[in-house]
Design the sequence.
């Protein structure tokens, strides 16, 4: 997925919401995505800082990735007060955990990724496109990655 993101026109400026209960694997998913995108060094959870900036490296090109965790927000207005509008107006991939905590403030996501813990080792992942650009990216990604045979439940499980 990280490679597809780098190669998708606009993917480096996409907005992705990550949804799921506590422990569903949102931060772990982001860590893997960041590593695959070439982010070096320690990757911290933004739970207390709210946002962690990163620089992905593809070949000789660096590009920004912003990882947000809005879990601790109590009022959507905190998003505006924190000055995040400027970050969202600028370049870079925006990965957002707990977007419902800032409802009405965020621009529409290109993708919503829902993670559901099946057990300690398995997750059910659902990706939905929310913009025309996000749909084009999803279609291209699905066409270049043939689906594995679905499990008996009909869902795609990712460990």
Sequence:
């Amino acid at each position: 997925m990280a490679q597809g993101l780098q190669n998708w026109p606009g993917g480096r400026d996409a907005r992705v919401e990550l949804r799921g209960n506590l422990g569903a694997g949102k931060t772990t998913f982001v860590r893997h995505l960041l590593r695959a995108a070439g982010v070096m060094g320690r990757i911290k959870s933004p739970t207390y800082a709210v946002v962690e900036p990163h620089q992905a490296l593809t070949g000789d090109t660096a590009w920004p990735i912003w990882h947000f965790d809005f879990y601790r927000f109590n009022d959507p207005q905190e998003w505006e007060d924190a000055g995040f509008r400027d970050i969202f107006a600028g370049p870079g991939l925006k990965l957002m955990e707990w977007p419902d905590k800032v409802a009405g403030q965020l621009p529409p996501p290109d993708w919503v990724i829902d993670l559901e813990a099946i057990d300690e080792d398995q997750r059910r992942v659902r990706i939905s496109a929310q913009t025309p650009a996000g749909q084009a990216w999803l279609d291209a990604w699905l066409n270049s990655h043939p689906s594995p045979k679905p499990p008996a439940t009909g869902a795609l499980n990712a460990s």
User: Anything to note?
Assistant: The radius of gyration is 15 Å.
